[in-house]
Design a protein that fits this description.
The protein is of the alpha/beta class. It contains eleven helices and 13 strands. Strands 1-7-6-4-5 form a five-stranded mixed β-sheet, sandwiched between helices. The longest helix has 22 residues. The mean pLDDT is about 95. Bound molecules: coenzyme A (COA).
Length: about 325
């Protein structure tokens, strides 16, 4: 078995910054409510026509990660792409990145696990490195969510939370004879709650033809739906569970963590998790204030920013954890 090492990190967000106050132009909301309930102050949204798509933003983040790894796109052996907002219904966005980067005809795999997407994607890449099948794998999380939101007051419970952006990392075979590795991955799902956080339409059950020909005008199922309170209550249980499961498997405790990088769902959720695990402020990365919830992109964006700020060094114990639609949840325990 080989060890896995994160050799490069990158992120990309669209230029346009949408402050909470701007949202009051579209819906009945206010800065104080959004800050108090979510911690969010602003988020980045694509501008129609600015060329930012999910795959293109993923490609931009990937270019930075590949360069920082000291590699070229031709050195990449596989792409794992996590998103809930792909450019197309099919094919997936991974193949678009393969083309945009000019990689060889390597495999490209899309992961559909929403807020847990990056944790699942990294766990998947880790298996291919550990078995020796591949040496350098590009793992991307990218989302354009703003264009699919209901920006009227009806959709305010969701629209104020989500942001656009991309993050990427290169996971390489550790050939440096050091301790860097992904120590464990723990992944879970509970499909009985699929409809508590979902975008039902269009899909196989309600295909586009039905939408065009016979969809009732007052059925808004083509917008995302979230049972906010219900999701919140599950998130604050599953986050600590997934983190403790990973730590215990490695005989570690929350005090051993140098940096916890949770999926940026809601600042209140992260604060709750921090308190539950008895962790100090400097042990947890929060940047939802600036980006909102960018779903599969939130962990690689936060990880990249933490690394750029010097908050992660080689040998540190870094823990990633996520919870989201599915429901799905999980953790990666990393010796960086
Ligand atoms: N601006 C102003 N008021 C708003 C609002 C907004 N954007 N959105 C909702 N409200 C109102 C509601 O209409 C409600 O009013 P009422 O009491 O008159 O009916 C009130 O605020 C409280 O709404 P509620 O939904 O109970 O608020 P909340 O405290 O649960 O916060 C979320 C809502 C969405 C922020 C919270 O439930 C949450 O963060 N859930 C988890 C989200 C998440 O993590 N999702 C991603 C998956 S990980």
């Amino acid at each position: 078995m080989y060890k896995s090492k994160i050799t490069g990190l990158g992120m990309y967000v669209p230029e346009r910054i949408v402050k909470n106050d701007e949202l009051t132009q579209y819906m009945d909301t206010n800065d104080a409510w959004i800050r108090e309930r979510t911690g969010i102050e602003e988020r980045h949204w694509v501008n129609p026509g600015d060329g930012n798509t999910t795959s293109k933003m993923g490609t931009e983040a990937a270019k930075i990660a590949i360069e920082r790894a000291g590699l070229t796109p031709q050195d990449i052996d596989m792409i794992v792409f996590a998103t809930l907002s792909p450019d197309y219904y099919f094919p997936g966005s991974g193949v678009l990145v393969q083309e945009q980067l000019g990689c060889n005809t390597i495999p490209a795999l899309d992961v559909r696990n929403q807020c847990s997407g990056f944790v699942y994607a990294l766990a998947t890449a880790d298996q291919f490195i550990k078995t020796g099948m591949y040496k350098n794998i590009l793992v991307i999380g990218s989302e354009v969510q703003s264009t699919g939101l209901d920006l009227s007051t009806r959709g305010r419970g969701i629209a104020v939370i989500f942001g656009d952006g991309a993050g990427a990392l290169v996971l390489s075979r550790n050939e440096d004879n050091d301790d860097s590795d992904i120590l464990s991955n723990h992944l879970h799902s509970e499909g009985k709650y699929a409809k508590e956080l979902t975008n039902l339409v269009p899909g196989g059950i309600h295909p586009p033809r039905e939408l065009v020909e016979e969809w009732p005008i007052d059925d808004l199922s083509y917008y995302p739906y979230m049972n906010g309170n219900f999701v919140f209550k599950h998130a604050v249980v599953r986050f600590p569970e997934a983190i403790m499961e990973g730590l215990q498997a490695n005989n570690l405790t929350p005090q051993d963590i140098n940096l916890l990088v949770p999926h940026q769902a809601n600042l209140r959720i992260s604060q709750f998790v921090q308190k539950r695990l008895g962790m100090k402020d400097e042990q947890i990365m929060n940047n939802i204030q600036k980006y909102g919830n960018t779903t599969a992109a939130s962990i690689p964006i936060a990880l990249t920013e933490a690394w750029e700020q010097g908050r992660i060094k080689r040998g540190d114990l870094v823990v990633l954890a996520a919870f989201g639609s599915g429901f799905t949840w999980g953790s990666n325990i990393i010796r960086f």
